Amino acid sequence: MAVYRKAGSPYWWYSFTHKGRRVFASTGATDHKVAKLVYLRERNRAIERRATGELAPIKLRDLCNRFLNDYSKPNKRSYKADTYIVNCLNAFFGDRLASDVTAHGVEQFKAHRRQTFIPESEEGRAARQISGARINRELSLLKTIYNKGVEWGLVESNPVDRVKFFSEKGRARTRYLTADEKKSLLEVCPPALRRIVIVALKTGMRRGEIFGLKWSDVDFHAGQLTLKRTKSGETRFIPMHRDVRDVLTSLPRSGDYVFEGDRGGTSWHGALRVEWDKAVHAAALLDFVFHDLRHTFASELVMRGVDLLTVSKLLGHSTTRITERYAHLAPAHKAVAINMLASEPSAPLATPKALQDLRKGVSA
After folding, report:
1. Is 245 helix (H, G, I), strand (E, B) or coil?
2. Are the CB atoms for 181 and 283 separated by under 8 Å?
3. What CA–CA distance (Å, rounded) separates 31 from 8?
């Protein structure tokens, strides 16, 4: 149908074929009659553009807004992160037409972001340069926005296709807490934050997985947590450590979510994030972010002799390739394990004369 309902969206959507491509988008209308008028208007515009051989000019910021409203918001869990990146794009490109953005312009954006520093926070987090990995995420979103623009018949080509991303080879983080650092961090965390940190340390869950955990996903009888909305898209089961059980049994069930502060109360990007920055500063932790709690979980397992395949399954990695970043932690601890073997009785040492006699016997 030209106008149809789409799962998860309150609006009617339209669809038609333009230059051999399917063009579809939200009408922004909940009324069917209004939606049909929007569909007819957009189809007629496409026909006019086809007759003249040109696409209607659209500003990049308008293309970004369409992407956010028509695709990111109804389909992606990273909608808030996408919104932040779009703000960065708009701040740099301004009111430039999407068709006027070239590969060179995207390279200029790369250079600009590479020279941008995140200022020192009041909680003591030192100023730091934006990483290449972070800029890659921004370029990746810009590329996706243009791909959708081409798909929707709004732009002809994607300038990001000709731009090389920063190399991330060998830049995987393995920052983890030592026993003393862990103790220091837990001592300075306020109660609400301390509970979240303990869950992260004893499950290896990502921050989004922790705040997305529902009481229906907690099975005290089986002693396990079920993660349904994971980065890989696959359900993951995590055994419940006794410390995690203690944390969860101490929490009131005030809603569907275990850490209800993420919805309606304290959000991570608000007061809770401030408390985290203060705790990291108070514990004198250098170059440490919340995701490093996950690295700590994995590192401790490897150092205690757990095989990489098991660690990979607990972390929710699709393959052990990502988990191999922790492999270097295993050898020293394997050596400790080998040295735990009982020593055999010492054999008598061979004297020089005995060795000489042995050689004569062999030569004979």
Report:
1. helix
2. yes
3. 16
Structure tokens given for 15:
């669809």
Cα–Cα distance measured from residue 257 to residue 210, given in angstroms and rounded to the nearest whole number: 10
In the chain, where are the structural domains located? 3-52, 60-162, 179-338
92 vs 76, more confident: 92
Q: Is the pTM of this model over 0.90?
A: no
CATH number of 179-338: 1.10.443.10
The span from the CA of 284 to the CA of 278, in Å, is: 10
41: nearest Cα among 2, 70, 74: 2
Residue 265's pLDDT band (cuts 50, 70, 90): very low
The CA distances from residue 213 to 81, 112, 222, 228, in Å, are 20, 38, 16, 9
Label residue 303 left, alpha or beta by phi (over 0 means left) and psi (-120 to 50 means alpha): alpha
Collapsing DSSP states into helix, strand and coil, what is residue 241?
coil
Q: Stretch 26-54: mean pLDDT, rounded?
A: 78
Strand partners, 117: 129
Strands 12-18 and 3-5, sheet pairing:
antiparallel
Amino acid at residue number 324: E
Torsion of CA 220, 223, 228, 229, to 10 degrees: 90
pLDDT classification of 266: cutoffs 50, 70, 90: very low
Q: Hey, what CATH class is 60-162 in?
A: mainly alpha
Identify the bridge partners of residue 129 per DSSP, sorted by sequence position.
Answer: 117
